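Table S2 (text version). Query chain:
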Amino acid sequence: MIPAPPYWRVPQNVILEKSQVHVWRVHLDLSEAGMSEMAKFLSVQEKEKAGRFYFSRDRKHYIATHGALRKVLSLYVKEHPALLKFLTNTYGKPHLAVADEEMVAPQFNVSHSHDVALFAIVRDGMVGIDVEKINPDFATMEIAERFFSRSEINKLCSLQGREQINGFFNCWTRKEAYIKAKGLGLSIPLNQFDVEPTPGKKPRLVASEFCPQDVGRLSMFSFDVKDDFVGALVVEGDEMNVEYYDYSEKAGN
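Corresponding structure-token output:
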């Protein structure tokens, strides 16, 4: 089984401590009123991108994800969601720009799959998150041979049935969360680092050819997001406390 968090809660107020990482779950099928509110928060560029989606559902999910991200981040920086500005690094990973030079902008990462999105937020340091819908037809050893390391493949081969499917998605989400935390995009070969995929064992980065020092200084978590969806989180620090929040359309009001 995938380890589950104690509970997803709607926060009364948000205080992010240095040793904490906040994970937000957002259900993207918002009400019409909620969708209208999220659209008001988007930048001109985000609205233009939303308008380029062919399918209505994809457009709505993009608006919900980016509008909710602005709303959630506004709780931390005490700024109106529509006024937030974002920059990207060379590999396209976004980060928050703040006008106050004395304020350290929180670091964040975003992932979405089907009708759910996750946000991970820390005060500083690397953070990456991934969510995937568990699709048994995708969890094949042929896919594993293409993307996973030999050590990970050997561990998956020792599993059977549902355990192997869960192990596959443990591996996939943990690897995705790690490369997203590094912020280097697909420049990192997925087979040049190892994560622990085995269900029931502690999630961890086992080895990294290109950045050995990451082993031991990064924390890794896996958790149920909802039925048939699994999430993984990688964050800098070895004693990080994770709090899980459910996004509400009224969050921060």
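Notes on Table S2: The chain has a mean pLDDT of 90. Helices lie at 32-41, 44-51, 56-77, 141-147, 150-157, 161-182.
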